[in-house]
Amino acid sequence: MAQISIAGDDLVVEIEGWEKLWSLKSRLVIPLVNVRGATVDPGIAAEPKGLRAPGTSLPGVITAGTFHQEGERVFWNIRDGARAVVIELADERYARLVVEVADPAATVALIEREIKR
Amino acid sequence: MGRPRGFDEQAVTAAAAQLFAGRVYDGVSVDDLVQHLGVHRNSLYKVFGSKRGLYIAALRWHLEHRLPRLAEQLAAGVAATDDSVLDLLLLAGVERAPVDTDVAALVTTAWQTLGQALHRAARVNGTSPTALSTLLGERLLARAAGPTGDPS
C-alpha cells in the first residue's frame, strides 16, 4: 500500500510496510509540475506489465518494482489491484506509477486538484 | 515533450464525449474507455494524462463541435435537430461541476452560449425569450420519460 501526500510543490509517494522490500524503493518525490494526472484504475492489474528490473513479481500476489514496457519505465506497487491508482508523469525517471492506496477516489481528487487543464 | 500519437486524438475525444453523454463519469471505467475507444491503456494515459484529462478534453470538444449547431438553431428559432447535445452538459452539470471547478467553468460557458442564442431568437421574433431552464428541463423530462427505442 502506498501513502500519497502533497508537500509544498511536490507529490510524495511512500511505500508502506513489507512491500518496500519488494519494490526496492520506499519513497518517491515528484515535482507537481511533472504530474500529468491520476486515475482510479483497478482494471490495470490485468494488463501485461512488461519486463521487470529490478523488483518482484509473484503473479496474483504482488507486483512491485520497476517494469519496462514499450520503451517506458513504469513503477508498480500493487497486490490484487482493487485499489490501484495510475499517476501519469512527464520528464521523470518513470513514465507512470501504478500504486495501491487506501482510498483511490480521495487520492485521485487530491492530485487532480493540482493539475492545470 | 514528444508524445507519440498512435491514434486520431479528435476521433477518440469525440467518442469519449458520446460515452460520457450516456453514462455518469464514475460509471465509466478505464476498462470501458479502452474497450469503447479502441485505444491502448498506456496511450490513453500518455495523451490525456488521466481519465479526468480525457473527460475535460471531451467536454471541450463538445462545446467546440456540437454545441454551436444547436445554438445556431435556437437563435434562428428553428426546431433543434438533435437536442441530445444537452445530455453531456446535463450530466456534467449534475455530477461533475459541483466537485470540479474546470468542469463547472465549461458548463457555465455552455449555458451562456445557449442563453444568448435563446435571447437572439426572442429579439428576432419580438417575443419573450424561452428560459434556459425550460430548454434544459424539457430535455430532462424527455430523458426521464424512458427509452424510446433510441439506442443511446
Number of domains of chain A: 1
CATH class of chain B: Mainly Alpha
User: What distance separates the N and C termini of chain B?
Assistant: 38 Å
**Structural class of the secondary structure composition of chain B?**
mainly alpha
Estimate the global geometry of chain A from the Cα principal axes: globular
Inertia-based shape of chain B: elongated
Which chain pair shows the most residues in contact? A-B, 24 and 18 residues
| Mean pLDDT rating of chain B | 91
Radius of gyration of chain A: 13 Å
Give the beta-strand count of chain B.
Answer: 0
Average predicted confidence as pLDDT of chain A: 89
Radius of gyration of chain B: 17 Å
CATH-level-4 superfamily name of chain B: Tetracycline Repressor, domain 2
End-to-end gap of chain A:
29 Å
Instruction: Name the poorly predicted regions of chain A.
Output: none
| Number of spatially distinct domains of chain B | 1
**Helix content percent band of chain B:** 55-70%
Number of helices of chain A: 2
Profile the largest sheet of chain B: none
Q: Helix fraction of chain A?
A: 10-25%
What does this structure look like?
The complex is a heterodimer of chains A (117) and B (152). In chain A, 12% of the residues lie in helices and 49% in strands. Chain A has 2 helices and 9 strands; from the N terminus they run E-E-H-E-E-E-E-E-E-E-H. Chain A has helices at residues 19-23, 104-112; strands spanning 2-7, 10-15, 27-31, 35-40, 51-58, 62-69, 72-78, 84-89, 96-100. In chain A, the strands form 2 sheets. In chain A, strands 4-8-9-7-6-5 form a 6-stranded mixed β-sheet. A 3-stranded antiparallel β-sheet of chain A has the order 1-2-3. In chain A, strand 5 (51-58) and strand 6 (62-69) form a beta hairpin. The mean pLDDT of chain A is 89. Chain B starts with 8 loop residues before the first helix and ends in an 8-residue tail after the last helix. Chain B has one domain: Tetracycline Repressor, domain 2 (Orthogonal Bundle), CATH 1.10.357.10. The longest helix of chain B is centred in the last third of the chain and has 25 residues, at 101-125. At the A-B interface, strand 4 and helix 2 of A face helix 2, helix 3 and helix 4 of B.
